[in-house]
Amino acid sequence: MDNTPGSTPRNSETTTATEQQMREAMVTRLIELGALRDPRVAAAFRTVPRHLALPGMELSTAYGAESAPITKTDATGTHISSVSAPRVQAMQIEQADIKPGMSLLEIGSGGVNAAYLAEVAGDQGRVVTVDIDPDVTQRARDFLKATGYDRNVTVLTADGEHGAIEHAPYDRIVVTVQAADIPPAWLHQLAEGGRLVVPLRMRGMTRTVAFVRDGERLVSDGFELCGFVPMQGAGENRISLALIHDAEGEEIGLRLDGHPEPDSAALRTALRMPRVHAWSGVTLAGDESNEHVDLWLMSALDNLPLMAAKPAARDRGLVASVSPIGVPTLVDGGSFAYRTARPTDAVDRYELGAIGHGPQGQKLAQRLVEEMQTWDREHRDHRPRIEVHPAGTPDNQLPSGRLIDRRHTRITIVWP
């Protein structure tokens, strides 16, 4: 991409050796992580001076592959705006499979990702980026102007729920905020056969899914584990938290996303009861993610919210497993059981299991283990297909599988 006069062009004399070294190191790390594969995407990450969007931040942090600095929080302390980590940005852009000259829509702005999109789409491409927050869009405009990408990127302050009809249709739509639903505007503004990449929350678990438009439905073409700030505006649909232990600094809660409201008092009592274990015999390598077994558990079991716990709760022995994403937890009345793991005799290998609490704790732990064994036996080497159909689609026109009903859509998760 050619940059406008007065901006920071691709090989600017004002670009210091340290800045370029940091970008090269970031790209090398992203390739090692498997987030970067397309040479054109790698070239974009070598070019965009992302540190200019993060004034005052150390270059090593700005170019850290997993660094996702928060830029705004709301009155409750919830993070509502951030600059996504380079790994996540690269992952989504790779999922989008962008070709030169394409028309792109980004939902959720900030500037840096729009610049990457503009680089990959090239001089004949066009990027529209939309955000509901005027502070965010102003920051994006400032960054894009300073770096010269404003000639190929249009920044709009609007509710992303409605897309940007005035510039439609789009070959690709990339959503950089967590969404619980797919609004009709995104489908209808996407060209037939176009790709929508969206961090879709399904029963508490978020995956960035690459969908392909097939008429009035969307069909997945791969997905990746991710975390994003939640969508605001008309599409806002936040998870609620039911606390089962509320000591300051040791909080433990269940994240509810369409799950039944639990009997929190009974679960507090259960938490104080001795834990019981069940082990599956299913093992994972130390560098092997549990994301796919978790997705199977979510698909197979009904009342399975995610347990969120502070590290201090684990340190005190209240729970054995802590994850920033949450741990799948099966709930039944005043009992619960959650996924855990233990080392095996084999080097760097772990066995999946479950820990239960309460009168039905052993039964629930065993139920979790049975589904882990089913996943290992029948689905370990497969990935599910996720489809999105309009709300109101009759059941007999949907594929069989886990069904998630939202306001605009009916989402199905189908395992081979």
Number of helices: 11
Strands of the widest sheet, in order across it, are 5-4-3-6-7-8-9-17-19-18
Report the biggest beta sheet as strand number plus sense, adding barrel if it closes.
10 strands, mixed
The CATH class designation of the largest domain is Alpha Beta
| SS elements, strand count | 19
Question: In words, what does this structure look like?
Answer:
Strands 5-4-3-6-7-8-9-17-19-18 form a ten-stranded mixed beta sheet. The protein has a seven-stranded antiparallel beta sheet with strand order 10-11-13-14-15-16-12, sandwiched between helices. A two-stranded antiparallel ribbon has the order 1-2. It has eleven helices and 19 strands. It is an alpha+beta fold and 416 residues long. The N terminus is likely disordered. The chain is globular. It folds into two domains: 219 residues, Vaccinia Virus protein VP39 (Rossmann fold), CATH 3.40.50.150; 140 residues. The two termini are 43 Å apart. The longest helix is centred in the last third of the chain and has 19 residues. Helix 2 crosses helix 5. A hairpin with a 2-residue loop joins strand 7 and strand 8.
